[in-house]
Amino acid sequence: MFYETEKNDHGLARPPFKSIAVPRPIGWISTLDENGNANLAPYSQFTNLTFDPPYILLSVNQGIDALRKDTTNNIERTGEFVHNMVTYDLMQQMNTTAAAFPPDVDEFEAAGLTKAPSVLVKPWRVAESPVQLECKYVQTIRLPGTSCVGSADIIIGKVVGVHIKDEFILPDGKLDILKIRPLARMGYSDYTCVDRIFTIEPSKAAGDNEERTLGLEGATGAFNK
To answer: Considering the entire predicted model, what is its pTM?
Structure first.
């Protein structure tokens, strides 16, 4: 099949686009407003951008009221946020925090989650999460939408601190992803989690693969001359 996105003439019972770029990691973003009120919300349009230094990106669509989300306002006004990794065991708590609570509602409390203090930023971390990234706000790229909910704020943050629970680090220094079981977003209301891992060694078709290996592993500082 083929369809033009402007015509939206795919003829399917459900729109297919968000089921194409899958699986997507979930940015579980904790912030504070200017008065210190906590906010926690998940965003599946989320990824890392680069590693030296590390930057991450999340895309936050407007609400049906055509207003920007609390997450966007809090990040831009305070300059800080935390990403908390979502796991299979935390799916229900994540789902609770996705609800459209008023700004004065603490999603940590609504979902029964524990607040953990950060080191370099002020927003709380989700104590139950195995991995958290403390981030400083860098910039927002504003994308206009066809509808009010189509308009999105692409937020870029620099990772300044990383928390990893020791029980999820293997003897060889890798993260025990199978034990963590990160949750990922599919399309529709579907999710998946990591329960299988296989390795593909970098190809030597063009010669030595050392630089590619360092890049794949995100070896910070390895390319400094």
So the answer is: 0.91
